[in-house]
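Record 1 of the preview.
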Amino acid sequence: MATFSPIQVVLDARQFQTDRKRNAGSSNKEFFDGRDMEFAEHQTRLVEQLRAVKSRLLASSAGRVGFIKVQMREEALAKSHRPTKKIFHPNSMPVAGSSGVGQLIVQVSPNGIDQAISHVEAAEVVLNYKPKKDKPKVMEPDPSRERAEVGAIQSIRLWDATDRRAFNTEQALRWFRDQAVPKAYRVDLFEPSEPFAKTIRQELDGSADVVSDLMRQLDEDLGCGYVGALFRPDSFSMARLYVWLKEGERHRYFVHASKLSEALQAAGDASFDSKHHQRLLDILGQHPAVRRVSLPAALKSSTGGASLVTAKGEFTPATPVDGAQYPVVGVVDGGIGMMHKAWVKHLSQAVPTTHADISHGCEIAGLLVAGQALNGNLVSPEPDGCLIADLAMVPRDSHYDSNYSSDLAFVLSIEQEVKSAKEAMGARVFCFSHNFEDPPGHGDHYPELSAGLDRIAREHDVIFVISAGNTAMGTGRKEWQIDPMVVLSNLASVSNDGLTSPADALFAVSVGALNPPTSPATVPHAPARYSRRGLSSKHFVKPDVAHYGGLCTTTSPDTGLISTSPIGKKRPIAGTSYAGPLAAKTLARLDQLTGTRLPREGLTALLIHSARQPTCLDSYDKKIARQFVGFGLPASSEEFLAGAPHQATLLFYDDMQNKKDLFFNFDWPQSLVENGKCRGGAMLTMVYSPPIEDAHDGELVRINLDAVLHQRKADGSWEKRSEDSFASKPNKATSAMEKHLIEEGLKWGTVKQVCFTSANGVGKASEWRVCIKYLTRSGEDFPAAGIPFAAVLTITDLEKAKPVYQDMKIGLTNRNVLTSDVRTTVHPQVQAKGGRKG
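->
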């Protein structure tokens, strides 16, 4: 194995952040150029819509505060077009959140509506024009700010029952009866902020506490017993109210979260009386404090749907070698039993053993401990041996509701156990190979479990590796074929294979499943037929990576992937559950080899940067391939960290500071420069952790970091040379639109990757730079502590011949850039001793 060109960490990355230079603000955008009559009609409609909202507010019994949905035009999604400078000024009508992309939720009052109407009516109907700065003879639109904001809005309406709930009483009762879910409604709440404008503040005095009014109305109007509890997971999350309906009328109270378990136990059985449920939903559907009512998700078993039998032959796992170093992985499951007890260094039994299934956890542990012995190094590239934190806290799906009163209770339990495992044995990578079925009317909001795991990851600097999930039995896709036309036809016929929570967690590593490399009956390395695909409307890349998950077959016991049963047998397995631990092992090895000193963003960036798309997907549109495999199949940790002489890789990480941009200048390797032209390839991967607010469904990422590669031009300016990894060729009409930047360039995504490739060379100068800048949502404050990020840059000779690594080292030394080996001085991992295959 080559060790002469390891990945280098750029030291003191903060020195490359400089004060940002802002260009002068652009002029107001005109959306009705040449259509003054249409603008006048649109203006009248908006005034009518605002007046209708005011009438509803005046008739409300819950005070004069309410919330409206402001739908922006598709071409007005950029923050500079938001109607918050004139029509909905934050001093009187603050933005309370957002629904989908470009759907603002604004807090309003009757006086505030009057102010908005005055601004809408102030917009000029006849558009003004002015000479262009660079072409004085050419006239361009010169709208006022009022006209620009009116034109940017598509429609305005009051937030109503259709926004609050997308299921009916019958669906709710059926879900509660048929699924082992907590029998509670989750109610996300609007909490009015106090406007600064004096007249608005006087108007709302004593009437803005709509949450208290909701609780009062529930107590007065519900004709049955209930238990309610108010939660706020953290300062970035919406307040939410959980309501359990109970039989009889004896128990009727709201309790503090700390008293919830006792209250639920004392209140007795859940009520399934449709009249009581209908009354509750009617109240919640009309009250202005309610943003959304949702049902709990259902834990589902995690097999790949294969008809499996136990393979012949026993297997005795190896045992740790004294003094050897091993990666550490936490297994969040039902427990792993005694099969791999020698590797378990921390154990937590959070659910009764009678409620858990240890088979699934044992199979995951088998891949972590003995993946190579069982499957060879093509399937399991990391050396055998892994220390395990056994967090036995996931019950069988039929016992979920008897162990957790709500999804939030499950999240809080996970946080406690993760914290203990990290303190006890330094665990930072946690394998979570379970998924939840979405309830009726789930919509596209940020699920409780996904949001909770993201919060835990951020607060405790850990990484959850989560299976992408499996399609239900009988609903999977057909096997991948060699002919792309057949594959595309098969994909078009399936619509129920999208990701479910928590595979959509933003700060987690979500893992899809691939067919094993030696599967003669199928296309090797292709997406497994059961592996769910990322169809998120938020346009994030999920899954992030893919790994081997075994074949889903009902005709043969051979799945191409083997693990261990609790009784010491080799067992064929299939499912995204088993792709997860293979990726988790690589992450944990990266953590081990780098001395556990890299931040979570750095480890994730290394994993994703090492990944490559299977070649069997090369003929497909990039957006098709990314739905199944994300950035691809990760490389072996040691092979990736060691590098090669024809390439150079740099890692730098820091916290992006307020009012700063990062510019890292470097010289293109001289062996790839001829007459000023630079040839070769480059890839830049960035992972960052922006503020996340669940009040903004489609816009929950509040600050965007963007990374590009620039080459200096002859005149001293800089030219962009990189393209987004998943971007198709843009056309002039859409390339600058916000929608295109989100879908193609992954704007607002938490992982960015850009590439450069030129066999013949480009430009006239060898000076390049990495440029990282940020963009905040309208009205968003930049965190005082900064935004954590990590970036990995690789430059390579496409012909694999030139001494790129040495050239880069010389260039960095000439620029006084200090670097160090990303690896620590550790001994190569010793293979565990023993291990017997039958």
